[in-house]
Design a protein that fits this description.
This protein is α+β, with helices and mostly antiparallel strands. The protein has one domain: q2cbj1_9rhob like domain (Jelly Rolls, Sandwich). It is 22% helix and 22% strand. The chain is built from five helices and 13 strands. Strands 1-9-4-11-2-12-13 form a seven-stranded mixed sheet. Strands 3-10-5-8 form a four-stranded antiparallel sheet, with no helix packed on it. The termini are far apart. 44% of the residues are buried.
Length: 287
């Protein structure tokens, strides 16, 4: 018996590759998390960029708590079972009236995780609308063979490599994933997705939690890490990450440096940027 999702929601996600909306957190919680994020940004020179966009649950206590929130884990358990690792957290922040966008891509093309059971929980900390550049998804694309991708040098592409599906996408079939502040969308590892620029007067802020079952292996590296957030890990394929006791916990910060460096190497495996670090948020590197 599912804990939170109705059977038709589970069936729809498996058929379409996504399900939305779910009430992940309250609007008040979302406002509080946004305030904490923006306080950190103000104290650190501006918008969250670079390494701080990745595995931030090792830096922020509130995000470490969020990836372990019972309701979210109950939802994830309905999809992948009772033993759960959080592989990473990602931020996608589009400034107001920003040209930044996300090209059509599939995450399984470059993450190296040998599972079909990765679930992304995309949580809106501000409204995600067509105007603000909400996600767009291609229903059923997760069931087809992986599509070919190319790396690009597109200036405003928010993806690490500017990776773009190298076949024509029928935009008429795409679904706009509009969610209110505090709501979330669930989507599959292999789903083709993208988003347009933010034409609204507010930032479009989203944090994405990536969950996997512990039998998953990392195929692009001998070492990777994840947080054990529910159940047990009988496989040991990932080093378990420390849970921070407070914001910027020194032990967790030190682990974050190691973990995000490794994640960068995985993301850029086989590219001209593999051994370099570029400071911009653009295509060459978000670091």
């Amino acid at each position: 018996m599912p804990k939170t999702l109705k059977p038709e929601a589970i069936e729809g996600l498996r058929r379409d590759g996504f399900h939305f909306p779910i009430a992940a957190i309250s609007p008040r919680q979302a406002a509080d998390y946004r305030q904490q994020l923006e306080t950190f940004e103000a104290a650190n020179g501006g918008a969250l960029t670079g390494a701080n966009r990745f595995k931030t649950h090792l830096l922020f206590k509130w995000l470490a708590d969020l990836i372990r929130a019972p309701y979210i884990l109950d939802t994830v358990e309905d999809l992948i079972g009772p033993d759960i690792l959080c592989w990473t957290t990602h931020w996608f922040i589009k400034e107001a009236r920003s040209p930044d966008y996300v090209s059509w891509h599939q995450d399984n093309n470059y993450w190296g995780l040998d599972t079909k059971n990765l679930v992304s929980v995309w949580i809106a900390l501000s409204p995600a609308t067509v105007e603000s550049g909400c996600m767009r998804m291609l229903p059923g694309s997760h069931l087809a063979p992986p599509m070919p991708h190319v790396d690009t040098s597109a200036k405003h592409n928010m993806l690490t490599r500017g990776q773009t599906i190298d076949v024509d996408i029928d935009e008429r079939k795409a679904v706009n994933i509009e969610v209110k502040t505090g709501d979330a969308a669930l989507f599959a590892y292999e789903i083709a997705h993208a988003s347009h620029p933010n034409h609204s007067g507010d930032r479009r802020i989203a944090v994405v939690l990536r969950y996997i079952p512990p039998e998953t292996r990392q195929t692009l590296s001998d070492w990777d890490s994840a947080a054990l957030v529910r159940g047990v890990d009988n496989y040991g394929h990932f080093e378990h990450e420390p849970e921070p006791a407070c914001d910027l916990d020194p032990v967790a910060v030190a682990f974050h440096k190691k973990a995000e460096e490794q994640q960068r190497k995985i993301y850029f495996q086989g590219t001209e940027w593999q051994d370099s670090r570029v400071s911009s948020q653009g295509v060459a590197s978000p670091y």
